[in-house]
Amino acid sequence: MYSQTTRGIVVTVRPDYLDDQSAPAENHYVWAYHVRIENQGADTVQLKSRHWKITDALGRRQEVQGAGVVGEQPVLGPGESFEYTSGTPLSTPSGIMVGTYQMQGPDGSIFDVSIPAFSLDSPHQPVRLN
């Protein structure tokens, strides 16, 4: 698991390789990632949008931006959390994801919450010994 805290908002991510949805012979690899967003701060916040940077093993990057997550813009009071699962395909057997959530505070101000960088690893990635 990967975890990072920004302004009292804790984001924890657990990636899982989906063997049953992947086709390595066709350069198609799929991961699910489970995210937990927990408000350990004193103010109520709302997740307004997301911005992901997804990089494959060849260094090709794609960016994904949009409103909310899985069709929702959850409001989190102090001590509350929100969890969801999403996924991403790659054409290489490994990669990395990192991003930010744009949150809105009670005064209407917008601030970024970091999503920790996490590794997308499949059992098809060649192991290199140093």
Estimated helix fraction? under 10%
| CATH level-four homologous superfamily name | ApaG domain
Q: How would you spell out the order of helices and strands?
A: EEEEEEEEE
Strand content: over 45%
Rg calc = 16 Å
Number of strands: 9
The CATH topology label is Immunoglobulin-like
Calculate the terminal CA-CA distance, rounded to whole Å.
25 Å
Under CATH at level 1, the class stands as: Mainly Beta
Helix/strand class: mainly beta
- Which spans have pLDDT < 50 for at least 5 consecutive residues? none
How many strands, which pairing sense, and closed or not: the largest β-sheet?
Answer: 5 strands, antiparallel
Mean pLDDT: 95
Number of domains: 1
Number of helical runs?
Answer: 0
Region (Disordered): 69-89
Organism: Magnetospirillum gryphiswaldense (strain DSM 6361 / JCM 21280 / NBRC 15271 / MSR-1)
InterPro entries: ApaG_domain (IPR007474), ApaG_sf (IPR036767), Uncharacterised_ApaG (IPR023065)
GO biological process, one term: error-free translesion synthesis
